[in-house]
């Protein structure tokens, strides 16, 4: 399997519209409509980066990276944060999520060499995603964050190796 990342513009919602989730997974991430409306309304679009995950010319996943002034309130300065990560339900369980998380680390070490940590939050009851992150090189910082929409979140991080 050869996975790559492809940058998306903030108007490329149609490119990822087919990435549906299982009904029980929808509670864990913002809808694509919401994500793209936020991207389009952002005062600093240069600091939020949307990506698709591509395998065999098919888009199988999607996520957003945020940096600097676009970081969420729970993140310390100087890190990059991962948001809205999803693999389409028909593509899950094939290692694409793991491949994507490796590619994110590579993208950061190549394009943001001073950044040493990738961070994210995951809902306490999102058991599958938590298992996924803990077996994909992330560790629990033991910090928690209460999100008005999603409830209690664990803050995870992955160290970025220099190239
Ligand atoms: C979390 C997510 C991105 C993982 O993507 P993925 O491509 O399915 O992940 P991978 O195929 O790389 O598998 C990663 C791990 O999940 C496990 N897994 C795969 N299918 C599974 C299933 N149906 N149930 C439970 N675990 C499963 C794999 O076994 C693997 O673990 P292992 O290495 O110990 O064997 C995907 O499940 C998803 O989009 N979930 C809904 C959205 C979400 O919750 N996003 C995270 C928000 S913080």
Automatic annotation (TrEMBL):
SUPFAM superfamilies: Acyl-CoA N-acyltransferases (Nat)
InterPro entries listed in its UniProt record: Acyl_CoA_acyltransferase, GNAT_dom
Alphabetized GO MF terms: acyltransferase activity, transferring groups other than amino-acyl groups
N-acetyltransferase domain residues: 3-161
Domain of life: Bacteria
PROSITE patterns for the chain: GNAT
Signal sequence region: none
Name listed for the protein in its UniProt record: N-acetyltransferase domain-containing protein
Provenance organism: Mesorhizobium sanjuanii
């Amino acid at each position: 399997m050869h996975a790559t990342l492809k940058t998306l513009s903030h108007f490329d919602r149609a490119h990822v519209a087919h990435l549906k989730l299982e009904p029980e997974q929808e509670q864990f991430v913002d809808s694509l409509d919401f994500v793209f409306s936020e991207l389009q309304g952002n005062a600093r679009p240069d600091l939020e980066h949307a990506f698709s995950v591509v395998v065999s010319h098919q888009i199988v996943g999607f996520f957003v990276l945020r940096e600097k002034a676009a970081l969420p309130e729970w993140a310390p300065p100087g890190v990059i944060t991962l948001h809205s990560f999803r693999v389409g339900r028909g593509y899950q369980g094939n290692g694409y999520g793991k491949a994507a998380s490796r590619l994110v680390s590579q993208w950061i070490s190549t394009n943001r060499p001073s950044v040493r940590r990738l961070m994210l939050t995951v809902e306490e009851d999102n058991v599958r995603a938590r298992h996924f992150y803990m077996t994909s090189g992330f560790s629990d910082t033991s910090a928690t964050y209460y999100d008005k929409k999603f409830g209690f979140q664990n803050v995870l991080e992955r160290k970025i190796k220099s190239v």
